[in-house]
Every structure is written in structure tokens, then in C-alpha cells.
Amino acid sequence: MLLLPEAVDDYVGPDNPVRFIEAFVDGLDLAAAGFVRVAAKETGRPGYDPADLLKLYVYGYINRLRSSRRLEAEAHRNIEVIWLLRHLKPDFRTIADFRRLNRSAFKQVFREFVILCRQLDLFGRELLAVDGTRIKAVNNKDRNFTRGALTKFINEADEKLADYMKRLDEGDAQEEKAVGNGGGSGSSDGKLAEKIAAIKGKRDRHKALLDELDKTGEDQISLTDPDSRAMARMTKVGVGYNIQLAVDVKHKLIAEQEVCNQVLDMGLLAPTVEAAMDTLGVDRIEAVADRGYFKIEDIEACEKAGITAYVPKPIRGPAVAEGFFSKEQFRYDPDKDIYLCPADQVLSPRHFGKSRDNVKIDYVNRDACKACNLRERCTKSFRRVSRLENEAVLDRMAARLAARPDVLDQRRESVEHPFGTIKQWMYQGAFLMRRLENVRGEFSLTALAYNIKRAITLVGVPSLIKAVRA
Ligand code: SF4
What we know:
CATH class of the largest domain: Alpha Beta
Strand content: 15-25%
Structural class: alpha+beta
Helix content: 40-55%
Number of helices: 17
Shape: flat
Number of domains: 4
Largest sheet: 6 strands, mixed
Number of strands: 13
Bound molecules: iron/sulfur cluster
Distance between the termini: 44 Å
Radius of gyration: 31 Å
């Protein structure tokens, strides 16, 4: 005999997150967010309400259930899902189709939750930590080819083919000689011909891929998920997508997220923070990022958009590579437009050139270098210090960073939490879907789930429900 409560509702306590999921999704304007099939057709059987399927997905992403088959199974046996869907049992195809058809609308749902958290004052709206990571795509490394790798393979195949052809000719000559002497089997020639055919086939396939790259102007090609790219993170290269997060340092909530297939983070700071400012409703904000975002055009764009950026300068360049004084050891005097070198000599502007879209000026003092005691530590002949015309923007940022070095620790502490949680705790080791638009939809759900879990920890389910209904 089972003495169970009589209503499903009795199993779902007032603090249960599903109560918030229901209240939140019911409060959304799904048609405005871009969900399809919000209004039922007059003909045929009515489909599932998108609100129910969205609730199922939000529940699933919070509880590490991302596949449509597992969500289908939960709708049959999980008391929370049964409560949330009121005994509805969509099959996995319906569930999967919903995610595919509404992939662009999930971003708006993510933003609606950010706005809700903003109303609860959970965002500090003063400092954002920006960082990127790679999440694996549905594309094995063996199914990705870079231009360099293809060219190398073709060249090596050509060399091998030339060698085999030579050996084949030599074999033929020996065969003729052996036949003349009454011997010769021809079996080694047959094996060689097989090898040649195999290499030729592989070479042709690689050449076709290279031709495809020439046609598209891309640098690499992925065969399973064509939008994914091979990209390095730390020391490892993998095929995936570049995930950008702007995390508010107050409570480590995600203010903005974007998925792209750009291999490097350079150039992504201003667009990511601008989108976050829009959702957070601010005109000015501070943003800190790591060296990978150091790009003068991006820092300039930040200043124009009201973003006070903190990005440390990478130590790179030919002088550093050769062990000479770095540029930081030369002091710029903006009033006189000169550099003072480590030997206290004046380097004046001499050559004007171009670096990408910027005017580049070289500062030199050949005579001083000729007679300098420090020359061995500075240059091979005479030292040239380059400066971009608009480099004052970087000087201002360097001064800000020198005055506030702790901001870099704040960055690390803030972004590690969501990335660590998403990758480990939420088991987001890889995307389930292919193509950029689909993985964008997937990641919006992941980021939404992270924010919901975090907000529940911070204020609890009843407060969130109260805010939704306010
Ligand atoms: S080599 Fe030239 S630039 Fe370098 S320290 Fe000496 S004078 Fe200055």
C-alpha cells in the first residue's frame, strides 16, 4: 500500500525551480521573441504550445538533459516534468524540431532573464569581465583541413608519386631484362601501381578541398560541421566554436553571450560589451579582458561606445623575440612627440608608413645608436621604435591599468566561474547540433540555464517568481 499525496502538485514544493520556469515562460511574449507556431492553425490537429516545449528545454538545460530523446523520456517518468508539462508527452522529434525551428528566438529569452535580474539589482552594471573559450563542435579533428595542411599533403603526395613512378620505370626496365633472360613475375609492379592509385586518389580529394578554399577565400574547411573551425585554446587545438561571455563581476551573472567561428578573440571586445550595455541599459561601463583582445581598433571602438577598457599589452614583437629592450622601456613624451630610449637619447619621428588602416611612425636616432654602449642589448644596427598615429588610446589604457592592477584578478575570478560551471557541472563539453545558427541557439539555452541557477542561489525561487509577476 502506498500512502502517496493525491495531487502531482503536492510533489512540487514552493522552492522548486520548475515553479519559476513556469512563471517565467508564461510571462514571456513568445511571438515577439520570434518563436514560430505560437498561434495554432485553424485546420488540423493543434500542435504543442511553444511555451510548453520551451519550459521543457529550460528545465532540461538546468538539469543536464539536452538531448531530445532524454527529454522525451523525462516527460514520461520525471514528476517535475510531468508537473511542468501537465502530463503532456511530446515525442523526441517534436522536441528536436522545436529547438531547430526556434534557434534564433532563444537569445531573446536569455536577454529577458537578464532584464529580470537587472530589475532585482543582481547586476552591478559597472565592470564586465570578457573572455572567450572554445566549445567542441560535431566535427572530428581528422575532418578539418587548413590551407597549409592541404598544400603540404599535396606537395608530399607529388614527391611520393614521382618517386613511385621512377621506381615503376626502373622495375619495367628490369622486368624487360629478366624476360629477355627467361624470368620476371611483375608482382612488385602490381603492388606499386596499387600504392600509386591510392595516393593519387587521396591527392585528388585534397586538391578538390584546396580548390574549394580558393573559391570561398577561407583558410580552413570542416567536413562534418562546415561552420566549425580549428582553433587553439591554451596549448591544444580542437575543432569548435568561439564562445564569448561578458560577465558582470558583482554576482558572476552572464550579461551577454555570443557564439562565433572567428579563430581569435581580437576585435570581439567592443561588439560583445556593446550588446551587454544594451541589455543592461547603461551608457557607460568598464570592461576587462585578457591580452588576446589587444587590438588598437577595438580599444578605440570601445572608447567611442562609452566603454572604459582594461586590456594588458602582449609582450611580442621582433625586438622581444631577439632578447632586446622591449618597447615599454622607451618613454614617449607626447608634448615633444619623441621617445627617450634606455640610454636617455632622443628618438625623433622619421619614417611614416602604414599598418593595416593606421598610420605608423618610426622614431629613430641613428647617430646615437652608433656610439651607444647599450647597443648590444638594444639592436643589431640602429633601433627603430614604431608608434601608431592613434596610439594615445593605448597609452591611456596602460595608465588606467597601472593605476588598477587588481582589475585583472577580478577578470579571472569572474569569468572562470561560468566557464567552469558550463563545461564541468553542466556537462557542456560539446555542442549537440551542427551549423553556427543552431549552436547559437543551443548556447543561449546553456547561458540562460547558468543564469537561472545562479539567480536561484542568490535570491531563491519565491523572489524570482514575485519579480516575474510584479
Ligand atoms: S642603441 Fe640607440 S636606441 Fe638603443 S639604447 Fe642605445 S642609443 Fe638608445
